[in-house]
Amino acid sequence: MSAFTDLVGPFEPGDGVLRVRAEERHANDNGTVHGGLLATLCDNAVGAAVRAEADELSAAATVSLTVDYLAPARPGELLEARTEIEKLGGRLAFADCSITADGREVVRARAVFSVLD
Description:
The chain is of the alpha+beta class. The chain is built from two helices and six strands, in the order αββαββββ.
């Protein structure tokens, strides 16, 4: 992970899932988890999945990330991002990501990543 994700995380990888326990510092003015954190979690989860699928030594860069917020997440909830790689071509990867908050789906995202050497 990067220094940026250490600031907003730390995100904990495991079993094909990227996790973070939402804290008060992750909340927006409405008291729910900020959409920027949720998008960042998706972005990191997809990037990790693409790198693992392509080759651990490969780098991956976001080309497109579309995030649909389905329900609010709250501080204290465990956020878990699961990624499914739909297609990994020569230079592009297409993936879907879902975030749950204590088991309840709160985000669905679609991403396109560039696979770099």
